[in-house]
Amino acid sequence: MNQPKKRERINDATPALNAPYLLWSLLFIVAPLAMVAVYAFLGQNNTFSLDVFRSLFATADGRRMWGKVFGDSLLYALAATVICLGLAFPLAHFMAAGRARAQRTMMMLIMVPMWMNFLICTYSWRTILETHGVINSFLSWLRLPGLKLLNTPGAVVLGMVYNYLPFMILPVYSVMSKLNPSLVEAAQDLGANRRAVLFRVTVPLSLPGVVSGIIMVFVPSVSTFYISQKLGGKGSLIGDAIEAQFMVPDYGKGAALSLILMAIILVCMMAMRRFSDGEEGSFIA
Amino acid sequence: MKKQKGAFSAIYSALILLFLYAPMGVMVWFSFNASNSTATFAGFSLRWYGALLENPDAQNALRNTLVLALLAASVSVALGTAAALGIDRLRKHWVRALLLHITNLPLMNPEIVTGISMMLLFVFGAKLLHLDSPLGFGSLLIAHITFCLPYVILSVLPKLRQTDPHLAEAAQDLGCSRMQAFFKVVLPAISTGVVSAFLMAFTISLDDFVISNFTNGPSFQTLPLYIYSMTKKRVKPDMYALSSLIFVAIFVLLLLSNWAQARAEKRATKKEG
Question: Quick check: B19 contacting A, CB < 8 Å?
Answer without folding.
Answer: yes
